[in-house]
Amino acid sequence: MLRMSLDVVVLRLRDERLELLLERRDRPPFEDALQLPALRIDEERDPDLEAALDRLLQEWALGDCYREQVCSLGSRARDPRGWSTTLVYLCLVSPDCPLSRGQWLPLQSLPGIPLAFDHAQLIAKALERLRVKSRYSTLPVHLLGEEFTFSELQRAYEIILQTPMNTAAFRKRIHRAEILCDTGRKRTGNQRPAILYRIEDPSCVMFDQVMNGAEG
């Protein structure tokens, strides 16, 4: 019987590092290996893909997070039980997203950790989407909390793209995208007070130019 499923690569940005949501598999095949949040599509319960994805996110208590479909993969080799197809989604959540099941693992700890099925390949495809799209869109803003400073937003881009940004050019690009709203509040601490912003436009806005790290 052909298996159709959803696999979701859920990422958060916490303590200056990207973390991935995984859980330990409790049955064969790949028993005791870590796997992505996944869901077998049920033709009775799921009238469409969006309903299936909503059901998965509800099961994991991930709420109304940012999501987008990355790719679809299917083959006889990806599941030892037989031919299977999966639709892969990228989901971005805030740093304080509550954890109802599974565990957060830093991305740098993944090499050498056994993963179920072809989930290493699925993670790689989702990360490539995140990094490529972050160069020309406001995608990283969805990894921040409800309120954030400009410096925190810039740092999110730097962590994802793995390169420093030209601060002046970065600020100009973000302001031109018109996605931020000044909350009227400031974050205080050891450094000078910084304006707190929130997202004005919840969609992913495309820039008019590709971002090229320190060059702007």
Written overview of the protein:
There is one protein chain. This protein has 216 residues and is α+β, with helices and mostly antiparallel strands. The protein folds into two domains: 132 residues, Alpha-Beta Complex (Nucleoside Triphosphate Pyrophosphohydrolase), CATH 3.90.79; 77 residues, Winged helix-like DNA-binding domain superfamily/Winged helix DNA-binding domain (Arc Repressor Mutant, subunit A), CATH 1.10.10.10. The chain contains four helices and nine strands; from the N terminus they run ββββαβββαααββ. The strands form two sheets. Strands 1, 2, 3, 4, 5, 6 and 7 form a seven-stranded mixed β-sheet that branches. A hairpin with an 8-residue loop joins strand 5 and strand 6. The longest helix has 16 residues. It is elongated, with a radius of gyration of 19 Å. 27% of the residues are buried. The model has no long low-confidence stretch (mean pLDDT 92). It comes from Aeromonas simiae. This is DNA mismatch repair protein MutT. It holds the Pfam family WHD_NrtR.
